[in-house]
Amino acid sequence: MLQTFKRTAYKAFGFSIYSEIPLPELQPAPLPNDVADIVIRYADLSDTWLEKSDSSHRTLVCREDMVMFRVPDLAVFAIEEGKTILVSPEPGAVHDKMRLYILGSCMGAILLQRQILPLHGSAVVINDKAYAFVGLSGHGKSTLASAFLQRGYQLLTDDVIAVTLDHQNVPYVTSAYPQQKLWQESLEVFGMNSDRFRPLFDRETKYAIPVTTHFSDGTLPLAAIFELIKCDCSHVEMRNVEKLERLSLLYRHTYRNLLLADSGLTKWHFDFTSRMAGHIDAYQLQRPQDQLTVHQLTDMVLTAIAK
C-alpha cells in the first residue's frame, strides 16, 4: 500500500491544484478552503492497468472521462473526469521525468475533459492581447516566444495553450506557469549560458528556463495564431490562413488530438474550433531549415499585428 503524502497547493491554467508530487515549475497558491479544482496523487494502478489495457503491448486506454497510459519503466498515469491525475510509479522511476508527463500529456487530457481547447505552442502578450505560436516540435515556437520576451513582452504560456470561449465566441488564453523549455541552440541565439539552467530529463540539450519578470498571470483575448513551418525554402514567408483552412490548422495543433475520438469529443472540437475560427486572425510563417531567422520572424509578426 502506498503511503500518504503531504499535498502542496499550486495554481496553473486558472485552476487550483493539490499535488502529492512536488511541482516546482508551478506557482504556489494558498490552500483552498474547499476541494481543489485538480488533485494529483499517487495510486497503485497495477491491477487497473492490466484490467483496462487487455494487452501487455498496449500503452494507451481512452474512454469518455478517463485516459490511462503507461510509460515503460516510469509510471502508469490515469486522468479522470477533468479533476484527478493518478500516478503509479514503476521501480526506479525518475521524478523529473514524471513531472514532464504530468504537466504535458496529463494536463492536456485534463483540459480536453473540461472541454477547454489545448493547443501545442507558446503564447505571448502584446498590447494586452494574446498571440499564439503553434507548430510541430522543433519548429521554433518557444524560441520565437523567447525573442518577444527579450524585447520586453510577456509570456502567458509555453508548451500547452489553454483556450476558452466567452458567450460571444471570443477566444481567451489563460496563463499556465512561468517557465519555458529551450534547446541549446536557442540559448546560444540569445547569448544565454546553459550552465545556469536545469536540463530536462533525458533531453540533455533542452533546458527549463524560469520566467520571472516577464510572465503575465491572467486571462487575455486571443487575437491571432501564427503557425511555424520549417521547409526547404530560401527565405521567410508569411501568408494569411483563410477561415476554412483554420479548422485544419487548429486540429493539427490541438495538443494530444489523438484522444478526441475515443473521448467522444470530436463533435465538440469541431463546434468549438468553428466558432473560434471567425474571431481570430491566422497566419502561416514558413522559414528555412538551417538559417537563423528568429529576429526576422519577430519583426514580421509585429508588422502583421500593427496592420
Proportion in helices:
25-40%
- State the major sheet: 8 strands, mixed
Structural class: alpha+beta
Strand order of the largest sheet: 3-1-2-4-8-7-6-5
Strand content: 35-45%
Low-confidence stretches: none
Kindly report the average pLDDT value.
91
How many helices? 7
How would you describe what is shown here?
- The protein has about 300 residues and is an alpha+beta fold.
- About 25% of the residues lie in helices and about 35% in strands.
- It contains seven helices and 18 strands.
- The protein has helices at about 45-55, 95-115, 140-150, 185-190, 245-250, 265-275, 295-305, and strands spanning about 10, 15-20, 25-30, 40, 60-65, 65-70, 75-80, 85-90, 115-125, 130-135, 155-165, 170-175, 180-185, 200, 205-210, 220-230, 235-240, 280-290.
- The strands form three sheets. An eight-stranded mixed beta sheet has the order 3-1-2-4-8-7-6-5, sandwiched between helices. It has a five-stranded mixed beta barrel with strand order 9-10-16-12-11.
- A hairpin with a 2-residue loop joins strand 9 (about 115-125) and strand 10.
- Helix 5 crosses helix 6 (about 265-275).
- It is globular, with a radius of gyration of 19 Å.
- It starts with 7 loop residues before the first strand and ends with a helix.
- The model has no long low-confidence stretch (mean pLDDT about 90).
Question: Which helices and strands, and how do they pair?
Answer:
Blueprint: E1 8-12, E2 15-19, E3 27-28, E4 38-42, H1 46-53, E5 60-63, E6 66-71, E7 75-80, E8 84-89, H2 95-113, E9 117-126, E10 129-135, H3 141-150, E11 154-165, E12 171-174, E13 179-183, H4 184-189, E14 198-200, E15 203-210, E16 219-231, E17 237-240, H5 243-252, H6 266-277, E18 281-288, H7 294-306
Parallel strand pairs: 2-4, 4-8, 10-16, 16-18
Antiparallel strand pairs: 1-2, 1-3, 5-6, 6-7, 7-8, 9-10, 9-11, 11-12, 12-16, 13-15, 14-15, 17-18
Helix pairs in contact: 3-7, 5-6
